[in-house]
Amino acid sequence: MREFLWGAVALMVAGAAPAAAQAAKPVDPMADDASALAPAGDAASRIAFAYADRDADLLVTWEEYRNRAMRLFGKVDANGDGILQVAELQALAGPKGPTPPGDVDLGTFNAGLRKHFDDGDAGKDGALTPAEWRNVVRPSKLF
């Protein structure tokens, strides 16, 4: 299940929200577990979409998507140097996960994230619908 590392890095993050809005959000099943990314359309995927959709308008904007991803970046970046080192990525992937190709700096992470979001945004309207989210949740590779 840990083969979903790259998708997890891209999607396991949520931005801050006002306390009232945050209280109404479901518990994010993927907040701490990269292996929890599930097949598109299943319950975990729907909950992840709802959690990323901070304003509950049934659209995940670039800002919502990026905020979610940046939270994961911060969790995975154990030493806080702004670089996801191979050892940090390998710890996330687990012993049976893929071997990361190299370190990933914040600029590379953001560029890959933006491309992935834009590729998934079939309507080119700057937001992901639940149907478009399915194409973004399980990328084969982010970098």
Q: Can you describe what's shown?
A:
The chain is mainly alpha-helical. The chain has one domain (2-137). The protein is 48% helix and 6% strand. It contains seven helices and four strands; from the N terminus they run αααβαβαβαβα. A two-stranded antiparallel sheet has the order 1-4. Strands 2-3 form a two-stranded antiparallel ribbon. Helix 1 (5-11) crosses helix 4 (62-76), helix 4 packs antiparallel against helix 6 (106-120) and helix 6 (106-120) crosses helix 7 (130-137). The longest helix has 15 residues, at 62-76. Residues 1-23, 33-39 and 138-143 have low confidence and may be disordered.
DSSP E strands, number: 4
Proportion of strand residues: 5-15%
How many helical elements? 7
User: Into which percent range does the helicity of residues fall?
Assistant: 40-55%
